[in-house]
Amino acid sequence: MKKTSGLLAVAVIMVSFLISCGDKVDPISERVAKVWIPRLVLENSAVVYSAGGSGNVKPAYSSYRLNLSSPPQASLTDVDGQTYSGTYSVDGETKLTISGLTPEPTGTGGTLVFTINSLPDDASELEITLNGAYPKTGNTTNKYTLIPQ
Questions:
Q1: Distance of CA 63 to CAs 10, 58, 60, 83, 146, Å?
Q2: In whole angstroms, what is the distance from residue 138 CA to residue 126 CA?
Q3: How far apart are CA 48 and CA 8, in angstroms?
Q4: Where does the pLDDT of residue 23 fall: very low under 50, low under 70, confident under 90, or very high at 90 and above?
Q5: Which residue in 130, 121, 131, 125 sits closest to 146, CA to CA?
Q6: Reported confidence tier of residue 22, pLDDT bands at 50, 70, 90
Q7: Which of 34, 47, 106, 146 has its CA 20 to 30 A from that of 121?
Q8: What is the pTM of this model?
Q9: Residue 118 and residue 30: Cα distance in Å, rounded?
Q10: d(Cα 120, Cα 31) in Å, to the nearest integer?
């Protein structure tokens, strides 16, 4: 009986050790700290831009950049080519807020709030949805699938 208990204890310790040696995943606040470019953009659920696509409804999204590489500083080069600067914060696992944007994007009050839909552990893609209609794109609801530049 003692031998079985001892083997069980050793097995538990080994499993615990192996689990604790797994790759550590950086927090979301660190994984978003990159320059992001669009792979796919949807406005009101319609695809308007796909990287490398020849029939893009809005090819100007090829110049879109979301620069979060120097926390908490942020800059956004929007679909119209205008660049805005401000600061950003990540709240929990699902909210990205860019505030104090100058110049102020039309109708935003200088703040853009996004829902983080997904961000894999390797930060290979960031999927975000802008909370609310965006006046700059005709009051559409926009979803961005971004990749690191």
A1: 57, 11, 6, 10, 12
A2: 24
A3: 58
A4: confident
A5: 125
A6: low
A7: 47
A8: 0.84
A9: 14
A10: 9
